[in-house]
């Protein structure tokens, strides 16, 4: 990989240990994936925040890095944290403090694009968090690989990322055309489609035909579910997403998806209500539209939920929900808006044995932790829950 | 016997091979305190990676696994070097932050546990020493 003089100096340790280690990470990844050079990035989004996930090992690494003077050099936001008991929260606070000391904006959300960190078409990024990567690539037309926590941190410090993968035009072309042979109506349908395709496809770039999303959140969920059950980081939707016109090559494999495949997934997650002890909306973090929908449905329901309803969201969106009165309505019906956190990265198995959600991504992770899961429409969840 | 791969993380090491035929997950798969492999799907479960030349086809699982390699190094339980067929992000980043020499592109089916290996993380050369 070609390095500028400045980059060579950084690699040699001229700008300190932290920059050197960060450069070593970028150069090695560049070598592994055949990058020709480093390219500047506009922003970074860092995963590896929850104490449940990174543990003491991660804290030690971050602390050593901070003590070596590590500072981010581009705008950088953070993934959501975990929640747990007092000891857990102490360790969690330590992690957040370390990121803050590196100059990271602690927005702690998986939807930075609904607030602080909104890229534009063509921007190069180094984002981790698979659902945010999918959103940035597919819906915005920005360019990022699926970074891991340490590699997005390294890129944030250096302000650059190796030029390979989805930063290159050629790799953004569709590798499979997905003919959707059933009408997708709800958020749930997009969850099911994403769940199914993530399992079926490999690290493909799907191109969807006959998809007419009514809301942005539906596409957000499609990408999140595909990225959770598979490793898909970019997709195109005919007539909808910004790069669809240039996405198709001459010979591309075609597959069909019908109602049957979606029903197969739904049937896996049809746990009965008596086995469910909480409801989660907001994986990835809920938009204002989703929160508004919950508030309206609860009003129609007319009586409080007996089991708790958690809506995870970003601070930016919560502030709007507060101002517009949705938070107050939701709280009246036994719902809570949680910011900065994610139940998927919390020791949730200690508290609940069954969760209902409308998110294919959450359903996938919760069931992998051994919880019973009901995956259903937001409307059904709000109307039929005990 | 000499095998030539690609040097990914610099450094030289000599030691006894611990060879897995299966992909290895570090997060939840290797105890950072003891270096013992706990991955239930692993064919070298129960063995310790500490001080060994760890050989496996590729990493799998959570990218947080990189931090486990770092913790192993801090606890003095890291492998002396790592040899893989395919370097992916988890192991590559973990080896860098932990300072463990890493060679990729080696046909690991040619190596067996107990062999004495000499590894050069710069040239990418792996030598079986009798």
UniProtKB/TrEMBL annotation, chain B:
InterPro entries to which the protein is assigned, alphabetical: PMDh-S-like, PMDh-S-like_dom, PMDh_S
Pathway annotation: Isoprenoid biosynthesis; isopentenyl diphosphate biosynthesis via mevalonate pathway
Entry keyword set: Isoprene biosynthesis, Lyase
Organism classification: Archaea, Methanobacteriati, Methanobacteriota, Thermococci, Thermococcales
Phosphomevalonate dehydratase small subunit-like domain segment(s): 24-103
Subunit structure: Heterodimer composed of a large subunit (PMDh-L) and a small subunit (PMDh-S).
PANTHER family hit by this protein: DUF521 DOMAIN PROTEIN (AFU_ORTHOLOGUE AFUA_6G00490) (PTHR36577:SF3)
Enzyme Commission code: 4.2.1.182
Protein name per Swiss-Prot or TrEMBL: Phosphomevalonate dehydratase small subunit
Family: Belongs to the AcnX type II small subunit family.
Catalytic activity reported: (R)-5-phosphomevalonate = (2E)-3-methyl-5-phosphooxypent-2-enoate + H2O
UniProt keyword Phosphoprotein present: no
Biological processes annotated in GO: isopentenyl diphosphate biosynthetic process, mevalonate pathway
Summary of the function given for this chain in its UniProt record: Component of a hydro-lyase that catalyzes the dehydration of mevalonate 5-phosphate (MVA5P) to form trans-anhydromevalonate 5-phosphate (tAHMP). Involved in the archaeal mevalonate (MVA) pathway, which provides fundamental precursors for isoprenoid biosynthesis, such as isopentenyl diphosphate (IPP) and dimethylallyl diphosphate (DMAPP).
NAD among keywords: no
GO molecular function term, any single one: hydro-lyase activity
Record-annotated active site: 62 (proton acceptor)
